[in-house]
Design brief:
Belongs to the MscS (TC 1.A.23) family. The protein has 510 residues and is of the alpha+beta class. The chain has 4 domains: 2-151, no CATH class; 166-220, SH3 type barrels (Roll), CATH 2.30.30.60; 229-311, Alpha-Beta Plaits (2-Layer Sandwich); 330-508, Jelly Rolls. 52% of the residues lie in helices and 19% in strands. The chain contains 16 helices and 16 strands. The protein has a 5-stranded antiparallel beta sheet with strand order 4-3-2-1-5. The chain has a 4-stranded antiparallel beta sheet with strand order 9-16-11-14. The chain has a 4-stranded antiparallel beta sheet with strand order 10-15-12-13, with helices on one face. Helix 1 (2-12) crosses helix 3 (39-64), helix 2 runs parallel beside helix 4 (68-101) and helix 11 crosses helix 12 (359-368). The longest helix is centred in the first third of the chain and has 34 residues, at 68-101. The chain is elongated.
Length: 510
């Protein structure tokens, strides 16, 4: 019995066996630690290697029992299997650990081809060692290959197309593509098919040969950060609005607004595409940075377009209807209008700027207030703009930002619902000293310069109360500016009440 065990061990434990086992254990431990996502693949390979060792031990047992011919066959089969397991672990470690550290990424299909070539060379070499002539195998395999190629044309076409797609770098995992009516991200490129995951979570499997024969559009790649995708947002505006003004207003709004996922460059453009029945059909073309949130970004852009058109008094086109208006409806609308005016007057009385106005003056202002909504991120006005409007913030929040000589931009204050801004420019003609940006979706009412001037001219003593308020706000702004500029503390640029009152009177000609 002892002699049999010795024969088994001597036939099983070859001089190179310990080195092979040591290499497999080392590569497996390193791969498991450095590549947690490959644990299942590494574990399966190690298990296969263990089975091959058991198979070699079984071959050694057959040799000890004098089944030499069968023993050689079994032993070589499992030696080849263990060698392939070792080469697979080497490939995992090289292609997943070593090469990426040097910035080299080999596509999966190319990696598989390299491993297959290594397998083939190893098998031929091993067969030559045991005295088998590989040339006869090659001749036989060539005939088999020809038969298989004829019977599996479609499958081979998919295989070769998959190799070509990855080797010529025309398609990569992670690319955003469109093929026919399917839009999504490439999840995997296999030998036979390419898997695409749509935004809805659907998984679409497309044969590689179909990709090679047809056309597909690549509009985004993960390794190219600046690959903007042009989007079209359509809207209709009635002919009462000048196309030139519509285009200018929309382009200015979208270009200046802080809209996530919308590129600054290339700049958005608005074009009149066609004339419809009672409306002009426009398209806003902008560039999207990330293709994933396409519909939410389009929705945000539409919100800004809607708010811009409302501020400009431009009407979106709707289907025309003929309605019979009765006197009761007219009376009802008049009642709603009166209630709206009364509500505005109540809100105006709460504002410090209008606290000293009389009933009729408040009514005049309420009737001339213009509804002006802004979407979050909209620029209400820029620093340096000419003053045309005084704003009353009815709902939401807005931020006041100041630009400094060193090209920095700092937040001065936040305006809450019930506040006013833009007063000084309307009353003195001075250009805007800061930019105001909508922090949230806001509802504003704005008064034109003519209305404010009319109220103050009718009762000049109002100018004194307004001057006091403006002087105080100017002092706060100048103190903020001095914190971030080189001006000394004694170089006050704000106007006292008397100086502010003189500026108002001079501008209005009082």
């Amino acid at each position: 019995m002892t002699e049999v065990m010795q024969r088994i061990w001597s036939y099983f434990w070859l001089p190179e066996t310990k080195y092979v086992i040591a290499a497999v254990v080392t590569l497996a431990l390193l791969s498991l630690r450095l590549l947690p996502k490959e644990r299942r693949r590494v574990g399966g390979t190690v298990a296969a290697f263990g089975l091959c060792l058991c198979g070699q031990l079984f071959g050694a047992l057959l040799e000890a029992l004098d089944y030499s011919r069968l023993a050689v066959m079994v032993h070589e089969i499992f030696v080849i299997g263990s060698g392939m397991a070792l080469f697979r672990l080497v490939a995992i470690f090289v292609f997943r650990v070593i090469l990426p550290r040097f910035g080299m990424v080999v596509v999966r299909i190319a990696e598989d081809i390299i491993v297959l070539v290594v397998y083939a060379v190893f098998i031929m070499g091993r067969l030559h060692i045991v005295g088998f002539d590989p040339s006869s195998l090659l001749t036989t395999s060539a005939v088999i290959t020809a038969v298989l190629a004829f019977s599996m044309q479609d499958t081979l076409g998919n295989l070769l197309a998959g190799v070509a797609l990855q080797l010529d770098n025309s398609l990569r995992t992670g690319d955003w593509i469109r093929i026919d009516d399917i839009t999504g991200r490439v999840a995997q490129i296999r030998w036979r098919q390419t898997t695409i995951r749509t935004r809805n979570g659907d998984v679409v499997v497309i044969p590689n040969s179909q990709l090679m024969r047809g056309k597909f559009i690549v509009f985004g790649r993960t390794d190219i950060t600046l690959w903007p995708w042009r989007r079209w947002v359509w809207f209709n505006v009635t002919y009462e609005s000048s196309p030139t003004l519509v285009i200018q207003k929309i382009e200015a709004t979208i270009s200046s607004a802080e809209i996530p996922n919308v590129a600054r460059e290339p700049r958005p453009t608005c074009v009149l595409m066609e004339f419809g029945p009672g409306y002009g059909r426009y398209a806003l073309r902008y560039w999207m940075l990330d293709p994933q949130p396409d519909d939410p970004t389009d929705s945000t852009v539409r919100v800004h377009i809607f708010a811009a058109l409302k501020r400009a008094g431009m009407q979106l086109a709707v289907p025309e209807q003929s309605l019979h208006i009765t006197k009761e409806n007219e009376a009802y609308r008049e009642s709603l209008h009166r209630r709206e005016i009364e509500r505005r007057m109540v809100d105006l009385r709460k504002l410090e700027l209008f606290a000293g106005l009389q009933e009729e003056e408040l009514r005049t202002i309420s009737e001339r207030m213009v509804h002006a909504p802004f979407a979050c991120g909209d620029v209400i006005f820029h620093q340096g703009d000419a003053p045309h409007w005084l704003y009353l913030l009815a709902a939401g929040e807005a931020e006041v930002w100041m630009d400094f000589a060193d090209h920095s931009k700092r937040l001065f204050r936040t305006i809450h619902a019930g506040g006013t801004f833009g007063e000084k420019g309307v009353l003195t003609g001075e250009a805007r000293r800061a930019s105001v940006i909508a922090r949230t979706d806001v509802v504003c009412y704005r008064l034109d310069q003519a209305t404010v001037e009319e109220v103050i001219r009718s009762r000049p003593e109002i100018a004194e109360a307004v001057a006091e308020i403006l002087a105080r706000r100017e002092a706060e702004m100048d103190a903020f500016i001095r914190q971030f500029s080189n001006a000394s503390s004694d170089q006050a640029v704000s106007q006292p009440k008397a100086g502010m009152l003189a500026m108002i009177k001079n501008f209005l000609g009082l």
